[in-house]
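Subgroup meeting minutes
Present: P.N., E.W., G.H.
Scribe: E.W.

1. P.N. recapped why we're keeping a running log of single-chain structure predictions: easier to compare across weeks, and new members can see raw inputs and outputs side by side.
2. G.H. added today's entry (524 aa).
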Amino acid sequence: MLAHLPSLRVLRGARRDALVTRFAVAAALFVAGCATAYEPGDDEGAGPDCPPGLICETAGEGPALTPFQPTPTSPDAGAPAAADAGSATPSAPARPAPSPAPGSSAPSASPGGAAGGDIPCDVATILQNRCGSCHGAEPRFGAPQALTSRDALTIWSSYVIDRVTHVQRPMPPPPNERLTPAEQDRLVGWLQQGAPAGEACDGDVTPGTDDGTMIPEVPPPAEDCDHVVELTAHGGGGGPDAPPFQVARRNDSYVCFAFNAPWQATTHGLSFHPIVDDDRTLHHWLLYATDDASKPIHGRPRQHGEVYDCDGTNPGMALMVGWAPGGVPVVMPPDVGLEMPRPGGLFVLEIHYHNDQGLDSRDRSGVRLCASETLRPNTAATHWLGEERGPAGILPFAVPTGNSEVTGRCTPQLGTDVNVLTSTPHMHRRGTRMRTVIHRASGGDETLLDEPFDYQNQILYQTPNVIHPGDRLSTTCFFTNPGGMAHFGPSTDDEMCFNFVIAWPIGQLVNGSSLVGARHSCLK
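Output recorded in log:
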């Protein structure tokens, strides 16, 4: 196996030789929405275990990964320290500081610590704890402005009030906790009064600091990882010196990167850690997968190494995992592995960039996954809950003008308990909320998921629960349609209603009936 990989260094002391496959893919430069496919050639050093377009390296030795953890209950609790993105992938070139918010400049902290010096201490504390990780002196994760001075907060007051009180698109965004009622009342009331000056904090309160909850640490791979695979954005070159991806200088860009599954045997996914490079423009990412690489995606089959403009949909592909600022890595329980694409399958990494400041942003963000050919006792899979059909159960459902909802049923014939780990709602632009409820055979209902939905910020929620034999589930999607009639379908002009649920054991939460051919669907 190793003879075909001249750049591979043998990892000593691991359970077996771990193969790190870094997808340093030669891809087209994506500028102003124009994407051109790159056709990978016969890269030197490629072999049956290292497909063309890949660079195969080894992973560092390290301790076992932390078992699956619930989402922290607040943005400043229960999360690891911030990662050094450069330790996972080469860092992007030095980048210029972004422009400040209109009408303001990036202020310096006062001797007392509060930026601007005259933001009242209790308000400055709210801004630090709840807004500062993104809206600091150098905005991050696509935030359009700094909120570190009274001048900036006065200019942006109506925007801030709207977002912190918004039902569908609140700030802080999910998966972070919303402001408490007391925090919201204080901040909104202060802004409505014209943001009057107050007494600054005496201690170290500096809006804009990051306590490490926004970017999880990427630890060394566990010893039971046979494949440590980095699926990351790239801008061309096809080798270790490949430049980062050039982010378009516009408000929103959805960019998709296609990668062949690099293994030749059935594997289990053990962990998925976000890799964050240019945090100024990265908004979030989603990882899709399919066993059939010949299946058309946006009009035609996609090839390994291809970079293309996408619209937030990948029809017929299962949504595996995702990440947004404040999210935590997905780490499977010790006796459970996640079903991965079969040999010959395809991953698609979809990244949403937000660059309305026109920054020179070059990015290598993505995900590092750990996979093992030694299968664990239990196999989890991505299961599809929701609805595709209308009331008669034949034609695709319709979304009329105004507010409406669609409810799908899941009545599985369970032979054993099913353990749910995560839920990822998926709708399109008219979707506003999703609710999945467990109807217990023993009586009573239990909510698995009830969260607002924002098409531009699709979130994986950790929803640990157990489905017992005889239980049923219902998934309701709520829509607001400004005009016209939409139907279930793959494009952004259509609508969808899916909750992608990672659960185990595989093959239980299933009853077929999917219009799009999903393997693990429970839609009736």
